[in-house]
Amino acid sequence: MTDSNSGSYTGPDRVFSGVQPSGSLHLGNYLGALKKFARLQNEKDCVFCIVDLHAITVPQDPAKLADQTREIAAAYFAAGVDPSKAIVYAQSSVRAHTELAWYFNCVARTGWLNRMTQFKDKAGKNAERASVGLYTYPVLQAADILAFKATHVPVGEDQKQHLELSRDIAGKFNHDFNAPNFFPLPEPLIKGPGAKVMSLRDGTKKMSKSDPSDASRINLTDTPDQIAKKVRKAKTDTGAVPATASEMEGRPDIANLIGIYSALSERSEADIMNEHGGGQFGPFKNALADVAVETLRPVTESMNRYLAAPDEIDAILNKAGDAAAEIADPIVADVRRIIGFRGA
Ligand code: AQP
């Protein structure tokens, strides 16, 4: 689908990613996104967004949306994203997102969107009643990334298909408007521990905010007691803790727990299986609960400190919104000119 000759973009490297303010963050968001963001800010120019425009693709309570946005900002900062190193802002404060999304709606093909599995999963049997916004969500996501000409996008594995769509849109824009290499073809940064954290109740389903069972996920706002209980109740089987990768095969619940242990402790899976392999799940879960509590405690405490100062959060977000617009506005102005609008 993409035009391969638009793959030789020569602009600077830039990282972009976002998190929705649509409910409490969980361990999957932390390991698959926030923790990686904190590392990347030391390596590349980073722009991180709280994607409140994405959140309204499903109903949100207007009385809560602003606080939910502040909560995600607090989670970014608590996870180590430093507003003096990376831009952290709210999507709705930068108009470039919605404007570019419209242009991209006219570039993307309905056949591409019809293949998006996240829409099918989220809309379920009620696709006819889902918002048009939920359907075109990946187009807005492409606009988010490309309004900054971002070259790298750290996301969990669930977002891989959307990233491919962003590349297709960038390639088609470059080709259709005879603007070779105007947009980069953004690369997903998916690898690494925590790229796909699964439900504690079903190792074949991803850990998700919208899972009706709270026991399926560890929320960043959970108390140490709640975290320990959820880990101890996590689904396992009647076998022993695997000692090798081959003993883990076909056991998604177990593989998930070992993966979480590895990502939290920053130890290899082999190392963990060396220590616990052949043993019972009781002691293994106790050790995992300790690691989870100790790793998340400082994050939760720091989040709560930020949340106690909402004005400070707003000041950071406002300033960052201006900085984000300074990058995105000229890029969208170029897009207007390339499309051929009068006065552009
Ligand atoms: N289970 C996961 N494992 C690893 N990474 C994950 N991410 C989400 N779930 C996992 C990553 O977190 C970032 C922010 O995600 P989001 O806020 O945009 O929402 P989402 O992907 O829709 O997350 P949820 O929790 O699954 O929400 P619902 O239930 O509404 O669908 C992204 O980088 C994502 O990859």
What features would you describe in this structure?
With 344 residues, this protein is mainly alpha-helical. The chain has 2 domains: 212 residues, Rossmann fold (3-Layer(aba) Sandwich); 91 residues, Tyrosyl-Transfer RNA Synthetase. It has 14 helices and 5 strands. It has a 3-stranded parallel beta sheet. A two-stranded parallel sheet has the order 4-5. The protein is globular. The site of adenosine-5'-tetraphosphate has 22 residues, from strand 1 and helix 1.
Outline type = globular
- The proportion of residues in beta strands is 5-15%
Can you say what the CATH homologous superfamily of the largest domain is? HUPs
What small molecules does this complex bind? adenosine-5'-tetraphosphate
Question: What is the correct CATH architecture of the largest domain?
Answer: 3-Layer(aba) Sandwich
Helix content: 40-55%
Strand order of the largest sheet: 1-2-3
Q: Name the helix and strand elements from N-terminus to C-terminus, one letter apiece.
A: EHEHHEHHHHEHEHHHHHH
Helix segment tally: 14
Taken together, the total number of domains comes to 2
DSSP strand count: 5
> Could you give the distance between the termini?
29 Å
CATH class label of the largest domain: Alpha Beta
